[in-house]
Design goal:
Four copies of one chain form a homotetramer. Chain A is mainly alpha-helical and about 200 residues long. Helix content of chain A is about 75%, strand content about 0%. The radius of gyration of chain A is 19 Å and the shape is elongated. Chain B binds a DNA duplex (21 and 21 nucleotides) through helix 1 and helix 3.
DNA sequence: CATGAATGAGGATTCATTCAT
DNA sequence: CATGAATGAATCCTCATTCAT
């Protein structure tokens, strides 16, 4: 392997992007387990798996870039819609944006979840999950200080919210006629009730 | 030998159980993707992968039995703790039991989730998920009729609750010092607030 | 292996016969290639392939006995019908008997041919073929001396006749509605013309 | 790589031909049953069975190409020598060409017969056999119309002739010093007598 | 004698990766 | 840069054979 050192050329970047896109579609369609280099090359219209190996040092590297790409788009999309306003408003916007991203980016999200659970790289996967959660927890903490939210453990609640989102993604992806809009509404209500500072109802 | 006919002998059952146990541990440790017959045989201390093939007609059959075994234990454990009382009480007991099962059955639950997302059998996997959700939805519907819960879509809410549980399992499994008890409390509060019939707090 | 030495007991003989019968049926049904010990044991209603190995030192030994058994029955049947009369009459009777044996012994003959071509034992297979041919050649030679037949090479002609018989067996076995009786007539006519001492027709 | 799309390159064709040749030789030497990819790779001087799988989608595909290759050469050889003249002349030429092909193509014919009887593809095997016989039967029917042949069943007689040829192939292949030329002469005489329109000799 | 569990070699096939062109 | 041929390890699975009970 005589790998690059300097800046990647334009062609280089284009190829890598093409391969990453094909990998995302392939994984979303047949799952990580069956997404071989052959399958990805076929999806991309490439004539050889060698080209993938040429541009990515290993399959793990390709998958890392796939993940990076998805998260970049996903994060940007969500951030743009949830980076201002009150914490409660931002949380609602965060949830809404997560669901909205599903439309038009189904493959991105399905692949993201598949990689999170099936990719053989516990290390970076957990790091990513922790970082996602930490950012959301920060928002929740802010909201608690401003009185938007009740007094829960922000880290745990952030995990809850991300779990809920993951569940919605999986279900929307696997159930053909799923009504995502209605689900989003119910999810918003649910999260609002779970986080709002109103006095807790009496224990049953 | 295509497959046995009559009742399995004691030795047969013991070996099968041993292999299933080894499979659960192996999948929990390295994920389904890397849980080859070789790896499982190594975990079980078997001398050959042929022995696994001798006792299970195919890898799919082994995985089916793994799933069956896990679900049997898990379901029995949860059912025993959540089959009586008011719907709200049963829901709380259900959540609690799910979390309690994690202690002493970490590998079972990790493997269950791994199989649910990575196994190459979309068919039965989705069927299982739908059936789990349907049963929980039924409980929720009952609770709505009795005034225990507010007026949400029971099917969606059931999905939410299972997603939350899955998230807790994954986190408890991957984060060494995770405080499962505290998480359970927070989860109970969260679900109670999400489902309780109290007037919704004013929208932010 | 602690193999026998003295005379086989009655039970021993019965078991061996049962296994041989099952082997014949299994090979006829699915071909030698797929006739594993498992398949044979299943056909025989045995509960273990170990029993086959117990009674036969190896698969090759079993196949040898299968062949011996088939040939014993086949030879006896044919010999009883073709051991007297003029050589020409005996030849016709030989051919007829070969065809008649097909009825009621389809599996025997199909297995015989399958073993002849697929069994991994060139040695004894060729020996058998040569011996069959030699015996038939002897009959032909007798017939030539008595003026029943023209002056062909008996060894070659014997080979021809056996080839014709093999072809008829294969075809009758593989073509469901095949009219074996009509074929036998045609075959008799053909062989009679091929061997008769009449002046050869003028070369075309 | 599922399979190529465009035209195969020169190298591709060469490798495939090499593998097919090695398969033919291997099957001829040890029979289809023992002609594993390992054995074929060894014969071909390849470093790995993976290379065979790289060039042929499955063993069945390889065997299909082996058969196609053999039949193409064999058919062309025979057709070139038996496609003109009177039906009787063409039949004689057909028989002669079949025998002549043995010289220099022993392995081709031995493999052809082995595949016909041992290959696990009853379907196409029977189709091939029927098609061969049908073509020969057509020639025989023509000859009957022109008075070259007596009034036999053309389909049966075609089967007889092919059986005779198969027998000659097997014998020439397995018996080292076999005099193929003499056999061919005897076979020609035999077939001529069997088919000629001369009055049948009086029944014995 | 019979059983069925166990063994280990060998089967075809897939795949990420390498490398000459 | 791109190609596609080549590699070899690893996959699941089958099978004849062995052996303790």
């Amino acid at each position: 392997m005589t790998r690059k050192q300097g800046e990647p050329t334009a062609i280089e970047r284009a190829r890598r992007a093409q391969i990453v896109r094909a990998a995302i579609d392939t994984i979303a369609e047949m799952g990580y387990a069956r997404a071989s280099f052959s399958a990805i090359a076929r999806t991309a219209g490439l004539s050889s798996t060698g080209l993938i190996s040429y541009h990515f040092a290993s399959k793990q590297c390709l998958m890392a870039e796939v993940m990076r790409t998805i998260l970049a788009e996903f994060t940007a999309f969500v951030a743009a819609r949830s980076d201002h306003g009150t914490p409660a408003g931002r949380l609602a916007a965060f949830v809404t944006a997560n669901c909205e991203f599903m439309q038009g980016h189904r493959n991105h999200l399905v692949t993201m979840l598949d990689l999170q659970s099936a990719a053989p790289d516990t290390e970076s996967r957990d790091r990513q999950a922790n970082s996602d959660r930490a950012k959301l927890a920060e928002l929740l903490t802010d909201g608690q200080h401003e009185g938007d939210f009740r007094d829960f453990d922000p880290d745990l609640m952030a995990g809850f919210i991300l779990s809920l989102r993951n569940g919605v993604i999986l279900r929307a992806a696997s159930q053909p006629g799923f009504d995502l809009a209605a689900c989003t509404d119910e999810l918003l209500t649910t999260i609002q009730r779970a986080t709002s500072p109103q006095p807790a109802p009496p224990t049953a």
